[in-house]
Specification:
With 139 residues, the protein is of the alpha+beta class. It contains four helices and six strands. The protein has helices spanning 3-22, 25-31, 49-62, 120-138, and strands at residues 32-40, 45-47, 64-76, 79-89, 95-107, 110-118.
Length: 139
């Protein structure tokens, strides 16, 4: 990867995470290529952009103060590798901290693919809060 391509990839990933923290799914949609694929190691398979944006909207409904504490970020061929901890507060006031690693593939200032690795047990409190919120809305 050239230095310029590496800088472009870093700038794209910085914009991506700023939009993610802000809950700006319109901006996220414009950063993804239309055919981008998002893969998670939790056996849910790959998602397209719209399905991923739905998940991210749901994340923001249950995690307030969402932020990503970046532990490492460095260029790789075709993109960026990042290790971070997702942090925020659940509706019951409990804090959530979910470590993860992502490979973000970038081309022309847009994200073409993400491969996300996390401990699915760490995501359980977020899933439980979302389920409780959905059940409360349907009552």
């Amino acid at each position: 990867m050239t230095a310029a391509a590496g800088e472009d990839a870093v700038a794209t990933v910085e914009r991506f995470f700023a939009a993610l923290e802000a809950g700006d799914t319109e901006l996220l949609a414009s950063i993804y290529t239309p055919e981008a694929r998002i893969w998670h190691n939790d056996a849910s398979g790959e998602q397209g952009v719209e399905d991923n944006l739905k998940v991210l909207r749901g994340l923001h409904t249950v995690v307030s103060g969402l932020r990503y504490d970046i532990a490492r970020r460095f260029p790789m061929e075709g993109g960026i590798v990042q290790q971070h901890t997702l942090r925020g507060t659940l509706p019951d006031g409990s804090e959530v901290a979910m470590p993860a690693a992502m490979f973000l593939y970038v081309d022309g200032g847009r994200v073409t693919r993400i491969e996300e690795y996390l401990d699915s047990a760490q995501a359980a409190p977020i899933r439980a809060a979302r389920k409780a919120l959905m059940q409360g809305a349907s009552s």
